[in-house]
């Protein structure tokens, strides 16, 4: 869906982005991570041509973006940023309808779309339509920013640290909502963040950047298991890397069939993470859990040994 071939951006003689190649499949969420100034925002903004690339090629569906008309870029690519970019003197309703108005949609279609988006993002029309951005909490303003980015139903969504300014709880709620939205709407998303935990939680494809280059990319679990160098390893949390891997691995991947002995009292859902299972063992002072399905029926067991990967897959270990 989105491909970058050896893309470089120079500001003067400095390369902010230096020969990066990247491919984002349709429906994937790709997270760009790296320390401040490594070229994440520049990369994102070259995709919707807020910044023109100096060298290389950027393709969307096999077509070079250089040849896209401005209207096509607006219609196909939504853009959400940390500061939300909402117009302070416009109501929420007017802010969300911005792109459809630029695209000259008829009034009633805009109205219907704004209503649909507000309900999708949990912002009831009657309470929020006439509010101004300064009357919103940080989390509400971010939701409006995301609604606005989705307004023209683009197939691509570019998000630049959209939750960066939020408190950890609101942030986690919006991360969860974004995943949920993603699973329903199947957008292709490129998400910039400097927060590795956020990237690990959200990404299908994780891209680590440093000084304008891509150091490593792949599935989050691949990077956690096999970071290419000390820089990637430290970004991934150093010693905590194993716990992050456990947080991304479901219990069902390590559980054993039910054994002949009486089932353990303490239970864990098969879709819970190994990290959650470990927390239950720690709290209950046990080394064996019964794994249950949605109906709370036992479907297997998880021992501490199989959780950590000793004698993997060997029944009764
Ligand atoms: N418009 C600009 N003019 C000159 N230099 C810029 C411009 N935008 C970004 N840069 C430089 O390019 C580098 C990458 O910036 P940016 O993509 O914003 O990084 P990030 O989003 O990863 O923090 C930085 O060194 C920054 O100072
Ligand atoms: Mg940035």
Which fold does the CATH topology of the largest domain refer to?
A: Rossmann fold
Specify the CATH architecture of the largest domain.
3-Layer(aba) Sandwich
Q: Superfamily at the CATH H level of the largest domain?
A: P-loop containing nucleotide triphosphate hydrolases
Category from helices, strands and their pairing: alpha/beta
Provide the residue-averaged pLDDT. 92
Instruction: Bin the strand percentage.
Output: 15-25%
Helix content: 25-40%
User: Helix count, per DSSP?
Assistant: 14
Bound molecules: adenosine-5'-diphosphate, magnesium ion
Radius of gyration of CA atoms, rounded to a whole number: 22 Å
- Helix and strand sequence: EEEHEEHEHHHHHEHEHEEHHHEHEEH
* Low-confidence segments: none
Distance from N terminus to C terminus (CA atoms, Å) equals: 45 Å
Biggest β-sheet: count, sense, barrel? Answer: 6 strands, mixed
Strand element count: 13
């Amino acid at each position: 869906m989105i491909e970058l071939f050896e893309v470089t951006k120079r500001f003067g003689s400095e390369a902010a982005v230096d020969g990066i190649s990247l491919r984002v499949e349709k429906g994937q969420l790709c997270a760009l991570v790296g320390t401040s100034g490594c070229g994440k925002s520049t990369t994102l903004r070259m995709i919707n041509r807020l910044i023109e690339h100096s060298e290389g090629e950027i393709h969307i569906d096999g077509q070079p973006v250089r040849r896209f008309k401005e209207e096509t870029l607006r219609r196909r690519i939504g853009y959400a940023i940390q500061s939300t970019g909402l117009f302070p003197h416009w109501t929420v309703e007017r802010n969300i309808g911005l792109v459809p108005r630029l695209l000259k949609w008829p009034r009633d279609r805009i109205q219907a779309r704004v209503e649909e988006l507000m309900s999708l993002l949990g912002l009831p029309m009657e309470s929020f339509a006439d509010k101004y951005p300064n009357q919103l909490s940080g989390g509400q303003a971010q939701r409006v920013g995301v609604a606005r980015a989705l307004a023209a139903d683009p197939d691509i969504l570019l998000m630049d640290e959209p939750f960066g300014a939020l408190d950890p709880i609101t942030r986690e709620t919006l991360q969860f909502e974004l995943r949920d939205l993603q699973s329903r709407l199947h957008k292709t998303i490129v998400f910039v963040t400097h927060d590795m935990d956020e990237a690990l939680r959200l990404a299908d494809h994780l891209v680590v950047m440093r000084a304008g280059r891509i150091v490593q990319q792949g599935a989050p679990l691949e990077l956690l298991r096999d970071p290419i160098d000390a820089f990637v390893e430290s970004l991934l949390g150093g010693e905590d890397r194993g716990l992050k891997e456990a947080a991304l691995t479901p219990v069902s991947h390590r559980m054993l069939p039910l054994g002949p002995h009486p089932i353990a009292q303490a239970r864990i859902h098969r879709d819970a993470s190994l990290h959650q299972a470990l927390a239950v063992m720690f709290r209950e002072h046990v080394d064996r859990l019964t794994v249950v399905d949605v109906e709370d029926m036992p479907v297997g067991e998880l021992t501490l040994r199989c959780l950590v990967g000793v004698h993997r897959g060997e029944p009764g270990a």
